Amino acid sequence: MRNLTYFVATSLDGFIADPTGGFDDFLFEGDHMTALFEEYPDTLPAQGREALGIDAPNKNFDTVLMGRATYQVPGGLPSPYPHLRQYVASSRLVSTPPDVEVVADPLAKVRELKSESGLGIWLCGGGRLAATLLPEIDELVLKTHPIVLGKGIPLFAGEFPTARFTRASTRTFDTGVVFTTYTREEAA
């Protein structure tokens, strides 16, 4: 059974983007980026992989699920992750390229995907989608940046049940960015 991993950058105060969905305040240079490129090349969009000369096989994920706003980020690509199976959770999105599938029921889709064999499933935002999928999230990989945004799109948005996770690992970089991995605690 495959895992669903919410792999996302966050501010110290728990926002994954500013109120407009932008993420320009996050750090894009430094030793944490080197680790990202080496350990998670599959999470880089096609234009980033091309610019960096990354043509490596996927290490962690073969599937990505994103919310409509994440998919339609300004300046985004119509097929941002062609090296992954791409799904967009939306009830309003009508047109996408053939390699991007729109799903109206992301919870059902994740359950279907988890029953298949393969690499992991990457939840690539946003906050409302993460709240909806919280019952199925097996792992959180939070890339916490040393910034306070004060407002924006929260890590989880909306109502959701309490879920407990256990810290599995923490890495601190010279940039001040901290990668923390949490795994879901099994219900007692």
Automatic annotation (TrEMBL):
Residues 4-179 form the Bacterial bifunctional deaminase-reductase C-terminal domain. It comes from Saccharothrix lopnurensis. InterPro entries: DHFR-like_dom_sf, RibDG_C, Riboflavin_Biosynth_HTPR. This is Dihydrofolate reductase family protein. Gene3D superfamilies: Dihydrofolate Reductase, subunit A (3.40.430.10). SUPFAM superfamilies: Dihydrofolate reductase-like. Pfam families: RibD_C (PF01872).
